[in-house]
Design goal:
It is built from 15 helices and 13 strands. By secondary structure, the protein is α/β, with parallel strands linked by helices. Bound molecules: pyridoxal-5'-phosphate. Belongs to the threonine aldolase family.
């Protein structure tokens, strides 16, 4: 076969350089053509006054999908969680039981305490994202000590659990936590930023998966690929209080139908793509597992997130791998000094997975010479 011409070589190099495989998060997706078209033609009105028809449509649809009475669009998952915790913990001195590695505890600026005055009781998260139920029960304050103790009011779970690598909480586990909550007169909130990923991976309808929860915060801008926003769902009474709090926090926005139109397309077109995202994630994880110098726990890959550890004694580092991949258009994040995190989404193709695998292989080989 004739060697490639200079022109062909330049084309290949250009393609390599311009190729972009963005694995930093599932929040990086770009709106699809159909989302952009829906946004351009969305019917809108002032949502603070309660008249935006597309927002009302999205909220009605989400309430139905999640099996709850009502729903409310909010600008972000962080605000959704904050509002939910604040609604459930309206009495000063309330305490929430949550996992020590959950998003609310680690990545939300401690908003539930700094803004909400809510005390948090952090219980160890297991590697699979659960919290032992006996530890939850043991953490519930004895009301007879109310002169001294904060008042346990709420339990929070996260499904899928991002810091555990996107692992899923089963419906049985969620129901059992719900029973504990009920028994003690507490509420249960689920941070369901990636609840559709969990539902698809578990093969459990999403409304069934969150049946035990009093409220759920669902991100539109993660796995399902809408550009902006989250929705919180719960009872009509919960949502009425949530609406006031959203306004207090500056989350009352006007013609949000533009954003909700894209979210409606995401619900229609992208939930069905999650299964394929999970398959590609599995393929990538299995391939990475084969590369000497890297360590994956294949059993922990259940949805669209992979943690990649650098094996002790390896000459490569997360910095070197990130730089090598970045030069080849592959973006990813470091989770810890010796751990990388990649997240797949619907804009990552099977060929992107193969390309990423071969670049990883080269990056590690160059340092370790194996
Ligand atoms: C599990 C989880 N909950 C909540 C959030 C917060 O969402 P947002 O970035 O929209 O505030 C994130 C964001 O990554 C998340 O991963």
């Amino acid at each position: 076969m004739a060697p490639p011409s200079l022109h062909e070589t330049v084309k290949v190099v250009e393609k390599m350089v311009t190729r972009r495989v963005d694995l930093r998060s599932d929040t990086v997706t770009k709106p699809t053509e159909s989302m952009r078209a829906a946004m351009a033609s969305a019917e809108v009105d002032d949502d603070v006054l309660g008249y935006d028809p597309t927002a009302l449509l999205l909220e009605t649809e989400m309430a139905k999908i999640m099996g709850k009475e009502a729903a409310l669009f909010v600008p972000s998952g962080t605000m959704g969680n904050l509002i939910a915790v604040l609604v459930h913990c309206e009495v000063r001195g309330s305490e929430v039981i949550l996992g020590d590695t959950c998003h609310i505890n680690i990545f939300e600026n401690g908003g539930i305490s700094t803004i909400g005055g809510v005390h948090s009781r952090q219980i160890k998260n297991n590697d699979d994202g659960t919290i032992d139920i006996d530890l939850i029960e043991a953490a519930i304050r004895d009301p007879r000590g109310e002169l001294m103790f904060p008042t346990t009011t709420l339990i929070c779970l996260e499904n899928s659990h991002a810091n555990s690598g996107g692992r899923c909480l089963s419906v049985e586990y969620t129901d059992r936590v719900g029973e504990v909550a009920k028994k003690h007169g507490l509420k249960l909130h689920i941070d369901g930023a990636r609840i559709f990923n969990a539902s698809v991976a578990l093969g459990v309808p999403v409304d069934r998966l969150v049946e035990a929860a009093d409220s759920v915060s669902v991100c539109l801008s993660k796995g399902i690929g809408a550009p902006v926003g989250s929705v919180i769902v719960g009872s009509k009474n919960f949502i009425a209080k949530a609406k006031r709090l959203r306004k207090t926090l500056g989350g009352g926005m006007r013609q949000i139908g533009i954003l909700c139109a894209a979210a409606l397309v995401a619900l229609k077109e992208n939930v069905g793509k999650l299964e394929s995202d999970h398959k590609k994630t599995r393929l990538l994880a299995d391939g990475l597992h084969e590369i000497k110098g890297l360590k994956i726990n294949p059993g922990s890959v259940e949805t669209n997130i992979i943690f990649i550890d650098i094996v002790d004694g390896s000459r490569t580092t997360t910095e070197k791998i990130i730089k090598y991949l970045e030069e080849r258009g592959i973006l990813l994040m470091r989770d810890k000094p010796s751990r990388l995190r990649v997240v797949l989404h619907h804009q990552i193709s099977a060929s992107d997975v193969q390309y990423t695998l071969s670049c990883f292989q080269q990056a590690v080989q160059i340092e370790n010479g194996n």
